[in-house]
């Protein structure tokens, strides 16, 4: 049985995508600013099928329509940015188009990287995907590159893999994690949980201090070398699927 294609009024659809109020969309349509399949769409009360190909069929003020609901954004998060909608200072949402802050459903980060952690961060308006990625039942692996204040002492790998490490202030042991030594003061750590400041606290429990932390991988999705800090791009369906491939 084929899936039914949803429809929406043009003004409601564009409003949910952050382009403006219904009144603003009505004025834009009458001014010839909304084009569908090469023709001006002046009646914004018209219902249209909301299909994935709309961004290549519709233009707003001469620009292709933004992706409709279900977008997934890959950001190379720079240092100093916060994964929040409300905190003071630089936010990860600042690098996205302004109108995307007004989208409904809202765009949110899939998990968080703290202010002093850089690297692979996903953002989406797809709530189901967000919960699938962060669900403990999925065991989606996250790989971090940690630069340490002091040389590794050789016991960390066994400690992290034991499944017996209990972080300070907690009573539940961590799931086993994998450690790959890169140099005496650099390592790759693979974890499947997302506890508060987990990687930093794990190395602290081993008597060390993380000076720099960078996330390189989420599941089977790797941060591209050509995506500079602060840059982002949309993920394809295949790339989204790769998140769940270890």
TrEMBL record:
Its EC number is 5.4.99.-. NCBIfam families: pseudouridine synthase (TIGR00093). It is an enzyme of class 5 (isomerase). Residues 72-205 form the Pseudouridine synthase RsuA/RluA-like domain. It comes from Brevundimonas diminuta. PROSITE patterns: PSI_RSU, S4. The lineage of its organism: Bacteria, Pseudomonadati, Pseudomonadota, Alphaproteobacteria, Caulobacterales. Transmembrane segments: none annotated. The keyword Transit peptide does not apply. Pfam families: PseudoU_synth_2. Belongs to the pseudouridine synthase RsuA family. GO terms for molecular function: catalytic activity, acting on RNA; pseudouridine synthase activity; RNA binding. It comes from the Bacteria. Keywords: Isomerase, RNA-binding. This is Pseudouridine synthase.
